[in-house]
Amino acid sequence: MEFWFILLFSILGSIGAISAAAIFTIFNEDRQKKLITSLISFAIGTLLTSALIGLIPEALNDAGHDNEKLVMFVVLGGIIILFFLEKIIIWRKCQDNNCEIHGHEVAGPMILLGDALHNFTDGLIIAAAFLLNITTGFLTGIAVILHEIPQETGDFGILLHSGYSRKKAYLYNLLSGSTTIPAAIVGYFIFDSLDFIVPYMLALSAASFLYIALSDLTPELHKKWGLRHTVSQLSLIILGITVIYIMSLFLPHTH
Asked: Model pTM?
């Protein structure tokens, strides 16, 4: 019975959340362009809060006092690795020394990479919760779903802003999000041997969220610098922070 619950909630937490977020794509192109900056602002708030309030404290707690520095080194190393990966993407896109690459052009691949890692971790967490007990499994599964919907909505905005069509944005987001499902299945069968890597995967996920929010997305907002745009951007960043923070208060921890 636990296996089927794990499978159900891993599907709902990935494909279900992405499909709910994909409602954004029903708007026409002009309306989408007007909403993209708003979604980017909201995504920055959710990414930063998920990393700093959710993932890093959770990773530190799971790793234990003796491994706290190692967790933070993984975060630091993850940021350096993402910088290098971003450079590779830029080099492949632009062989001309005079070519200019903007953050939104590489944010898409970066968010897909980070999202795949994050959703893989979600799958392990769902499996662990249900193997602990059914009640914890249900509460954790619901927490994952409710967390992923606003996160995936922001991701759609990032992908569309990076030049992806609505169809490709949904397909690629679906592929990166579906890593929850095999991770949950693997976790069900061999979780005891994988448990030790969970805090470090959380740390890598946090590194990707921090890097994307601060390196790729924030510079895009600075292109619109008027008072009205600034107030709107700050309000939506704060909204993203508030949504994730409230969830951290009222929803059960994933471990």
From this structure: 0.70
